[in-house]
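User: Hey, my collaborator sent me this sequence without any context and asked if I could get a structure. I don't really work with proteins. Can you help?
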Amino acid sequence: MKNTCTFFYVITFFLGFHMTLWSQIKMGDRPLVIDPHAIFEIESTQQGILLPRMSTLERDTAFRENLPNGLLIFNTDNDQFEVYLSKNQKWEPIKTTVPKFIVENQILTPTEDHIFDLDFLLDNTDHQELKLEGTVLHLEQGGSVDLGLLLKQTEPQQLQLHGTVLSLEEGGSVDLSPLFLSSSDNQKLSIDNEILTLERGGSVDLSSIYTIPEPQKIDQFQLVSNTISLSLSQDGESPHKISLNKINTDNQSLSLSQTTLSLSRGGSVDLNPFLDNQDQQNLIITAPNSNTLELEISNGNKVTLETNDQLVFSKKNSTTLSLTSQASVFHTLEAVTSNHSQNWEQDDFVFGSPQLENDPSTTTDNKRMFFDKSKAAFRAGIAQSDQWDEDQLGTYSIAMGRNTIASGFHATAFGLSTVSEAWYTTSMGVGTAAQSRAETVIGSYNSLYTPMGSTNQWEPLDRLFVIGNGTGSSTASRTDALVMLKNGDTTTQGIWTGPGFHIVSARDKKKKLKKLSLGMAVVKELIPYQYEYKEKAGKVQFGFIAEEIETILPNLVYESQGVKSLNYQGLIPVLVNAIIEQQKEIEKLKKEVYHPR
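Assistant: No problem. I've predicted the 3D structure and written it out in structure-token form, which is a compact way to encode the shape of the chain:
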């Protein structure tokens, strides 16, 4: 018997020593059959592995610091496995399905929540020039494509442009409307010798199509009603007729200096091309009445010019003749007063200036009121620079006051130096700025920011309503009394006073209901403080520090514009749980004291 026991002890020691050196563990079916490559193996056809299950809050409470890389749990809030990666310093979900992907702007995006940036796979540094020789397209650094197979030999055809449609003679057309701007570009043309130049740059040499005409004489010059009849010698054409209707609302004087005919408010015509300078004669001007003008050339005939009652001649002296209009600038028809020309599609309106845009050479036009017909935009007040020029004029916009800017679509700006630069924005007060779609700003010098969406995009994290209480235009002087985001989140910089506030708490508005497990253990870590706000010195407050609560209950801390705030309402359930736990302890102690075993 003694020998048998000794043998058993030796075998046990040998097996224990062997397992220490070559430890392999197997659980489940066939425990003695283990794969030689496995340190731990589980085999079963009837059971599975159950990992630790916990909510996000329970996970963050249990694991706060020094988490091992590769720690694995099952998150009951998200119904998915999670692994802690120390490289990323966060829990990452383990995907069990292959997501579907879409590709847009070089970004491969699954239909779930992950985004993979493929930019590092692209070589964006290959900028090469293209060169076309005949029908062969060449790359600068080698490689070519013969486009001859893509070309179809056809007979020459004429191109015609009807509106914005470019058509071929034998069929086929292209609509060029996307290439046209919705608003016109009003620029002045000037010609010097044979070069035609645009006001803002660009010129065309007309020498190939322009020839200097031969000097011609005026054979006939007659004014009948509001039409000038003019014929030139040797042109072989019937008299040219020029309508003066458009000048019936402009009271200006004509003056003739040498060969230059000038208007009193600007604009002149050099008559030299019409003169042959070979016939020196005297011109005698007489005005028998206000509607008749007689021109008589020595050794020639007499020409009589007649006008209607709205166009009046007057002779100031032997060398000066004035032509004035008695017609009204406005026209009234059926009790409606409007511009007399009745060009409803194009006519702009301006009062206080001869033009819509600012003239930097003078300040007399700063105070003005105008309506831009092409953009249906209205301005009234004073603009001391380019605030109301074409580039700052939003379509269907209104700006009133001093130096106000409404450059956004359907934008409005009122007051002093207010700016509405995005779609459907409104700014009022002094120095306010509305920067995102449908944003309204009132008050004084609100803070500036960079919206997440473009000027015409609705972005939930951009501002919706702002009350500014700043004192100046510098960044440090711009502050806000209230900021409400498009998602409803609201931040104030003051103390709210009222009879009470209510928070929606109906069951049908909630999901994933679960009894709270946090209680006394969390409460023991809370540190209450007594303090004063810097902006409200002298008033003692009681509460907590948001940064400290964030390490214990991170879901109760909210950050906006760099300032952290605390949801005190969310502390109540934790405190109630702590009281319930404490009461249970009290009841237990009572039983032990009053009813000992």
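In plain terms: Residues 4-21 have pLDDT under 50 and may be disordered. You can pass these tokens on to your collaborator as they are.
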